[in-house]
Amino acid sequence: MAFQLATATRHMIYSGDLLHFDGLLWNRVFAVLMSDLLLMARPDQEGYLSVMQDPIILHAIDHLNVNGSTENEFSIVLTPTRGESALIFQAPTQDLKSTWGHVLQQRICASKAQLIIDNNLDNIV
Predict the structure, then answer these.
(1) For residue 34, what pLDDT is reported?
(2) Domain architecture of the chain: domains with CATH
(3) Nearest alpha carbon to residue 112 among 62, 45, 46
(4) Is the pLDDT of residue 121 over 70?
(5) Exposure pattern of 41-58 as b/e (b: 16+ CB <10 Å)?
(6) Which residues pair with 40 in a beta bridge?
(7) With 90 as the cut, is the pLDDT of residue 5 above it?
(8) 3-state class of 86 per DSSP?
């Protein structure tokens, strides 16, 4: 799926290395949190980032679970309309897990609030 990364309202909030559990293995990813979506990318040999899958639209996240099975693990629970139910990540440290948890929660709330505002503006005649 093609999407436009650069828009007037989209900007980068936070990024960093995480481990992502694909159901069998933990894979290193470079996560990029934008104002309205989360990208999972992988650096190539030349240092460029390749997006690994469709972006996760923040207002499509049902909730964030920061109580994983290990101290550095957290998960993103998606709304049922998306094919997968949860994405499981591990941060390198507890401090980084806490930071990811805070910035993700803040952006999820802001994205959902913006969606409500946009929908209400669409209904104004």
Answers:
(1) 95
(2) 12-122 (2.30.29.30)
(3) 62
(4) no
(5) beeeeeeeeeeeeebbbb
(6) 31
(7) no
(8) strand
Q: Tell me, what's the pLDDT at 9?
A: 80
DSSP state of 123: T
The answer to whether 41 and 32 have CB atoms below 8 angstroms apart is: yes
Task: Return the SS3 of 116.
Answer: helix
pLDDT by residue (tens digit) across 41-91? 998 888 888 898 889 999 889 899 998 888 999 999 988 765 668 899 999
Residue 8: CB atoms within 10 A of its CB come to 5
Cα(77)–Cα(20) distance, rounded to whole angstroms?
Answer: 14
Chain mean position to CA 10:
14
Note the maximum CA span of the chain. Answer: 53
Contacts of 88 (CB under 8 A, 6+ apart): 20, 21, 68, 73, 74, 75
Model pLDDT, residue 19: 97
The whole-angstrom separation of Cα 13 and Cα 34 is 5
Neighbours of 100 (CB within 10 A): 22
Share of the chain above pLDDT 90, in %: 53
Q: Taking a C-beta distance cutoff of 8 angstroms, is the pair 33, 105 a contact?
A: no
